[in-house]
Structures are given as structure tokens and as C-alpha cells.
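We emphasize that the prediction below concerns an isolated chain of 125 residues; any contacts that depend on oligomerization or on bound cofactors are therefore not represented. The input was used exactly as deposited, without trimming of termini.
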Amino acid sequence: MGKPADLRELDWNPKLRTRLERYAVGERDEFNDVALDFPSQTEFQQRILAVTRRIRYGKTMSYGDLAAKAGYPRAARAVGTVMSSNLFPIVIPCHRVVAAGDKPGGYTSPQGVSMKLRLLALEAG
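Result of the prediction step, given as a C-alpha cell string:
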């Protein structure tokens, strides 16, 4: 078995790591000030992610409402596609985007919807 990786080498943003650790134990943080470097995106993707970043801590928005707020009222399914390819979960709070009727909808993570539900419960207090 090899030697474990030196975590200091992987800690590319210690301030953000500390904030994420605090978030994980229930400290409120919107992460709106975190600068992100996106690969090339369509205008649709940019608008959807911008609206998603504005969903407040502890709040949710449906895929359909998010689509409408971004100016694409018939694009709820396309919003789901954008959420599933989110490169910055938690910083772009895709876990706050839910299906109609406050059903959780999907979540692309190794733990799937159970992780989404844990994050929503954490933020609910």
C-alpha cells in the first residue's frame, strides 16, 4: 500500500476549505463571494447558474420556478441537466433546487438524493 497523499499539497484554497468545514457543521454561509472559473458555457447555463447562486441558505426553488426566473419558463428539464453538471456543488447550491411539490428531485453525487436531503436538513436547522 502506498504512502498517503500529503494533504497540504492538495489544499489549494485553505480559506474556502475552512468555510466548507464550518458549513458542514451548520454555520450559515452563502458562498456568494467565491470567485469561480467556469469552462465555456451557453447563455442559458450562465443564467441558470446565476439564479441558482441567489437561492438563499435554507430556501428551495423548483426546477420550473428557477427556469422561469432565469427567463426560460418552459425549460424545467433543461435546468435539471444544468444542475447535474454543476462543477461547484454547495458554492452553487444545486441542492436547493427541488422538483414540483417540494419533492427532492435528483442529485448527482456518490450518495445521490440522500446527500441532497442531508444538505437541505442541515440548512433547515
